[in-house]
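ok trying this again, last paste got cut off
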Amino acid sequence: MHKLSRLQELVAQRRVIRLTPRHRPDEKLYGIPLSVTDEFILLHEVHEFHLDGYLVIPLGNIKGIRLKEAEETTHRILEAEGALKTLGLADPVCLSSYEELFSSLHASNLLVSVEACERVGKWIEDFFVIGKVADVGTKTVSLLPFDASGHWEATPTRVPFRRVLTVTFNNEYLNVFSRYLRA
């Protein structure tokens, strides 16, 4: 079955699934799919039996999709614990293109974590930029990052859309950290 049609089916079911990213095939990502387009899938992430923020993954970065007994068990536990009462996103993000995605995150004034990759010599390395969307171009997003000490960087970091691997927002890490950022 084609990846997009399988994901559309899973969005309709609203069940916990496991995704394997192409860039890090040993990692497994769990969530409930909320929306899918030709470009992206949006998951309400699942960590340790609770819903924790949102994850956007370009479809080209998905190596595997799984919905088996383990995921069904996780879903059953979430349901029994009452966690699914908060399923979904109050202010939807646009998934039609990178430009629209980052513009909608910018308009919502949300902190984001963007995982991307860059070529370093003959190697490709992953990196993260955590902060707020400062500007959106036609081929890049500029993020004003903060460091691990909670200080804002002086200049934005520009990330080409073609290098984006995942985008997370509105999760516990970002929401708690945002209360302690220094001007």
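PB: full thing came through this time. The longest strand covers residues 123-136.
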